[in-house]
Amino acid sequence: MATTDDSFNGMTEHCPDCDLETLHEVSVQIRTESLKKENAQFSREPYRVAECQRCGNRSSQRMNNA
Ligand SMILES: [Zn+2]
């Protein structure tokens, strides 16, 4: 049947809710953040979103903190 399925980006990470190492589904979202309401300038920030496959807790983290 199917050999390696790369579509599910699963990672084992610590979940603060479960207080365990659990499987997380990891994805990247681009969020548009408005800096000022009057300003038409928006910054698009990539966020790394990890969803615990045990309890469904989602945590997002801004990626460009370099
Ligand atoms: Zn969890």
Write the layout of secondary structure elements.
Elements: E1 10-15, E2 20-34, E3 42-52, E4 58-62
Antiparallel strand pairs: 1-2, 2-3, 3-4
The structure holds zinc ion.
Residues 15, 17-18, 22, 52, 54-55, 57 line the site of zinc ion.
- Helix proportion: under 10%
Rg over CA atoms: 16 Å
Average pLDDT, all residues: 83
* Bound ligands, each once: zinc ion
Name the poorly predicted regions. Answer: none
Q: Which structural category do the helix and sheet elements fall into?
A: mainly beta
Organism: Haloterrigena salifodinae
Domain DUF7835: 1-66
Protein name: DUF7835 domain-containing protein
Walk me through what this model shows.
It is elongated, with a radius of gyration of 16 Å. Strand 1 (10-15) and strand 2 (20-34) form a beta hairpin. It has a four-stranded antiparallel beta sheet, with no helix packed on it. The protein starts with 9 loop residues before the first strand and ends with a strand. It is 0% helix and 56% strand. It has strands at 10-15, 20-34, 42-52, 58-62. With 66 residues, the chain is mostly beta strands. It has no helices and four strands. It has one domain (10-62). It binds zinc ion. Zinc ion binds next to loops. Zinc ion binds at residues 15, 17-18, 22, 52, 54-55, 57. Residues 1-66 form the DUF7835 domain. This is DUF7835 domain-containing protein.
